[in-house]
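Data availability (excerpt). The following record was deposited with the supplementary files.
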Amino acid sequence: MTAPKDGPEPGEAADDGPPAGRPRPAPPPLPGAAVAGDPAPPRARRVQGGTATADVILSAHAGGNAELFPQILALHVPDGAVVADVTFGQGVFWRQVPPGRYRVLPSDLATGTDCRALPYATGAIDALVLDPPYMEGLLRPKAETRGGLGSHVALRDYYASGGGREAPGGGRWHQAVLDLYLDAAKEARRVLRDHGILIVKCQDEVSANRQELTHVQIVTGLAELGFYARDLFVLVRPNRPGVARLLRQVHARKNHSYFLVFQKVPEGQAVARYRTRDLPPRPGPAPG
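Predicted structure:
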């Protein structure tokens, strides 16, 4: 067995490194390693999912409630959800919704149900639809000056007369409209489960010669109640509205309304930090 050498053999030069002032040469690269100056290897191309299409649900629609409402449900409410329409009226919204797609709980004043005092248990509802009278003319206490016909007539007469509920210090004119929305939204928050969907129909108005952006006021008010504004739809009526007596036009005539879609933010979470999410599966059986 040969012992390790402690130094160079006679006649061999000692490896003292490169001459002074010259750098030691770099070791040869390992097999497969990149060498400085070589072009970078091509990166894998990222492939996006989905397909190109123009068949999407848009935020603005010219037509009627019955045409737009099914699209809103398709985008925001999963099939099989328990949906409480608490201002059902003549059921116009549901005329083009496929039967059996949702479990619909219709109620209104004809069934003895006030949208501000619902008969459902806390957290029992997946989605709720609210379409109360949205113009102050519908809520005037005197019948001879009260506006509104058609599907809102029962709601108009009930809520304009106080609705069987005392409201000390309640607002007048446009404020009465907002109070009705906010009171109904408080009750909606109670019966909706966490992340539940609230669909609100509203329209801006001019009241007492003052422009009232009702949809903005509702979004702001419901944020304070713990609702995240998830989506907004503009519905433009297809025909031009007429005016019976016009002396001088001051504001643009409203020919559009809104569907506002909200999501219930769970207690303890900040609305400002909430993000859109799917309604999670129901943890238990649907209400009976």
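Summary of structural features: Residues 137-156, 159-170 have pLDDT under 50 and may be disordered.
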